[in-house]
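Entry 12.
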Amino acid sequence: MPTAAEFTLTAPPSSAVVEQQLAKIRTRAVATRNKRILRRAKSEAVLADILPAELQDGYSYHVISHGDIDALSYLAHCVKTWPFDYVFVSTWCMAMADVDQLIGWLTSGRIGELDFCCGEIFPTQYPDETDKLFQLEAQGEPVRVKIARNHAKIMLAINEDQGVYLAFESSANVNTNPRIEQTTITRDRDLVAFYRDFYDGIQTTYKNPHAPRYAS
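Predicted 3D structure (tokens):
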């Protein structure tokens, strides 16, 4: 038979208690976001120790990590040395902090044009990030977005005036996950052209809902 203790009723929490609980949730969310920013700053500091500021033409740099370095940190390392006319990002997923970082470089002039190819899950699992990029594209900003059955993690960065052509090949998505990841950065014009030509031929499977509709 159930004991009396199992039937003990608890009065509903007061409005003050509910507000305290909500405040804790909000604080936890803020702390999580700050932790993410701090983690990226730490990973960029690690890369500054193990990679030269200026990657040499014709060389490949191979890095393996314990999952504490995301793909975008490698681009951040290189943006400090060179501005880029064009950056391409192929990723399965990407959080809003990553989108904001890339758009920040675009706004500040460190990147001239942004080109994305995201996985087919992106519009449904990352709707806010997708919508932000689509709105920028529709407004005429130098942002292009494709959605495809894409799981490759590739970034390209080009500075034509200085002859800098970088290809980032990684197991990591733009955002970090706590797994061992490997990344290779190669400064090679032909390799960049190889990937860019391939992705230029990919057609999007998801139309930009903010794009103007023209009568036929």
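Annotation: The chain has one domain: 31-200. The two ends are 75 Å apart (CA to CA).
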